[in-house]
Design brief:
Length: 238
């Protein structure tokens, strides 16, 4: 098995984006998973998840939402770019749909069998992609932000949705979890929310070690959520 990593450039408005296509060269067009990164943007963390997916027969695409020129910048600069995108959720959604279309256009992708996952800010992006009503098979949010965008009320959600959430995440208290459940129900979505006790924000990231901010890696929750993701993908991308 040979896993290939290929940069894919695209132009969104005045920003050049560079995603990474990760796939098994021995396979033809395969079910695909779009990966939205954390607040720090495209990094080795998401590339590692993409490689795991490619080893299981999927084509993965690690999104770049900040622009090629901004890949690898310090966290605080990335945070400012994230906040700028969050300030206009409709424009963010347009960017997400552009990245989805870019992935679908790749030869290694079976464009009819597509899902999206995301981490932290990327979890919000995965949920917003579903909120647009676009025809992805499923989306998964890992320790994502749940705040609704406010511009898509009444839009039916076609994608199946799963959220993997640390119950001790200070960024998403229980009332926001309940609110997400109510929102997804009202939108007609097929949804699941998996809550992990004694688990903070960032639980899938082995480098997460900021307990004073409620950001801590949890090997058990990371393993359980990944196993649940594999079952979810097998179902929605069959």
């Amino acid at each position: 098995m040979t896993i290939e990593v290929t940069p894919v450039s695209s132009q969104f408005e005045d920003t050049e984006l560079e995603g990474l296509l990760v796939y098994n060269t021995a396979r033809g067009p395969s079910p695909a998973v779009l990966i939205f990164p954390t607040v720090v943007g495209r990094s080795d963390l998401e590339l590692g998840f993409a490689r795991q997916l490619a080893e299981r027969g999927y084509t993965a695409f690690v999104a770049d939402l900040y622009g090629k020129a901004n890949i690898g910048l310090p966290r605080e600069e990335c945070r400012e770019m994230m906040l700028a995108l969050l300030a206009d959720r409709a424009k963010l959604q347009d960017r997400l749909l552009h990245v989805l279309a870019t992935m679908r256009a790749q030869e290694a992708v079976d464009a009819d069998r597509v899902a999206a996952i995301g981490y932290c800010f990327g979890g919000l992006c995965a949920l917003d992609l579903a909120r647009t009503g676009t025809d992805v098979r499923g989306v998964a949010s890992f320790h994502g932000l749940f705040d609704p965008p406010g511009n898509l009320d009444g839009v039916p959600i076609a994608a199946r949705v799963v959220a993997f959430h640390g119950w001790g995440d200070p960024m998403v208290p229980p009332e926001k979890v309940v609110a997400l459940a109510a929102e997804l129900t009202a939108a007609g979505a097929d949804w699941q929310i998996h809550g992990y006790g004694h688990t903070a924000h960032g639980f899938t990231n082995p480098e997460a070690n900021l307990p004073e901010r409620g950001v801590v890696y949890n090997e058990t929750a990371a393993r359980r959520s990944w196993a649940s993701l594999e079952a979810f993908l097998a179902e929605v991308l069959a």
